[in-house]
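Data availability (excerpt). The following record was deposited with the supplementary files.
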Amino acid sequence: MKKFFREFKEFISRGSIMDLAVGVIIGGAFTAIVTALTNNILMPVINYFLKLITGGKGLTEIYTYLDKQYVIGENGAYVLNETGEKIIDVANSIYIDWGAFISAIINFILIALVIFCLLKMIMRVKGISKYGENISKEDYKKYRKEGKSKEEIAAIDKKIGEEKKAAADKAAAEAAANTTEAILKDIREIIKNK
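Predicted structure:
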């Protein structure tokens, strides 16, 4: 049981877990912004153009009914609209909502586009857009002058990254061991003093 909690503590205290948590929170908030942009700005414009093209149907009105149910009035007869057609009871009908599907696709494309742009910007700021995470621009140019291919440079970059990660993991393990020893020493002192 101690081993389980120790491993859990190591897992939760890694920096990447906190980065992931922050990413999920920001991603949720960002999705809300993009959904608002899609639903409140882009979809009305798209619906307007679709109504001009199709003569009155926008994305919000594109349904394929599998089972139509009609509104029934208090007297038991169907309720009719201004043109004399039966009014469809959308809440009780079974239908495919193509407009909602197309809206979800537009949302996805927008989110993917913005995330791509953000990642591209972050990579450019960090200087890893085409050189790699662990190789500087100068080292990249030096390797290219030596005749190394991009794949060979990527392998070198990966190896350097693995070495850095191994060193960081070793340092974290040593720090955890030192912390555990210090806690045990404190506990022994407390027990001796009682």
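Summary of structural features: The first helix runs from residue 2 to 12.
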